[in-house]
Give the backbone structure.
Amino acid sequence: MPFCDGVRLREAYRRAQAERFAFMANNVAEQNILIGLLEAYTEVRSDLLVQISAGAAKFAGGGDKRAGLRALSAMIRELAEPYPICVFINLDHFTTGEMELIEEAIDDRLVSSIMIDASQESFEENVRISHAVAEKAEGTGILIEAELGKIKGVEDEISSDEALYTDPDEAVEFVRRTGADLLAISVGTQHGVSKGRDLELRADLAARIRDRLVESGLDAPLVLHGTSGLLPEQVREMIGYGVCKLNKDTHYQYVYGRTAAEFFAEHAAGIVPPEGVEDDVVNLFAKGDWSPDKKVFDPRVVGGAIQGKVREIALALIDQAGSGGKTLWDKEGQ
Ligand code: G3H
């Protein structure tokens, strides 16, 4: 049961708004990052929001996005099952090219929420597309996130060379006309490796967007994309301005790569044949004296190290978001 639907997710965001904390929204494309996250979030009693991007679905499905989406959704549900927290699944940056998949995810209730990203389109087209997705999800409980403005940088299949800041008045019109449950805003964060200290983060703009929404009777939680590399004080400031969801992909990709790089550097002698030994992978070195060491080349060994490191970094990020100790699982007495 730990997979929780959009109805519970709405409740989680309401609580986050009322108690001024946020959820890190963590991208996964395989199981090692997911397991590290499940361990960390359970340890500190936080609900967990995991995201599947269109690129991750394509990767997990060996090029077939539909297969990858279904496989990742099933894997997350199965692995989450024994953990006593709510685990939510969000589709991240799904675009007009993935409309059929969005419909399938809604029809088959594969996820708790969906981000439709039509931010590359004109304002009117963005409204039309986002509204169509919100309409499709109506009555299912699945929450819809839509984006207004453009975030600089590259995220999977989405890229922009320029940042286009979200206009507070347009934000009100956009949320009203689309019926989106969450609003992703552009206030100076960037996708990819970015350094918080160099960003021109417009916290004032986030505050104005939040104020304009509240004045207009709209309470859509704000979403910040491109938050890998933000400083803890920047995270806290943005949460103070109504941001309830902070997207992180690059940070975990780095943790994965770095842990693997260090592990393989340390254990290279057990994997790569020394000079003078014939490099005979085809026969698994059967003809010579030298043998590789299964204790270090088995992918489960480096996988375990990655899970442990992800757990450690996730704990620090949960601390920034303030979601520890707030699981709805306790509240329901389950
Ligand atoms: O939706 C995904 C995130 O916005 C990725 O941001 O590259 O800073 O991790 P990031």
